[in-house]
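Appendix C reproduces, verbatim, an entry submitted by the partner laboratory led by Prof. M.T., so that reviewers can inspect both the input and the predicted structure.
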Amino acid sequence: MKVMRSLLVMKSPVTFRSGLEQRIADNLVEHKCKFEYEPMSVAYTVPHKYTPDFVLDNGIIIEAKGFFRREAQRKHREIKKQHPELDIRFVFSNVNQRVQGSWLTCAKWCEKYNFKYAELDIPKEWMKNVKEKKN
């Protein structure tokens, strides 16, 4: 991208993310219209619904993960923030595999964000106080 320096607003050179942004900036400068490029961030929330993999009768929610994608990591951090009453736990196929987009392993990610986790099988202690259902 072309680096643009506008004496109208910018104090240092700016690299735009696309040719269209560069074109718009050039047009604004040409018309002596003052502007700032990406001067702020706006937080927003997009409503979603979460469907757990397994819910035990004792209330424990089990998420089975082979590969822990970035989107799922964000989702679970957000769910924990918005619903701290939920007891969400992970069972990974490999706790030492790195999560997508990080040097953290699945185990280290869970420790960092305070989630309980296991590898391959649900620990027996997680199954305590689960009532057998009669058909």
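The beta strands are 3-4, 14-15, 54-55, 60-65, 87-92, 116-119. Additional entries are available on request from the coordinating office.
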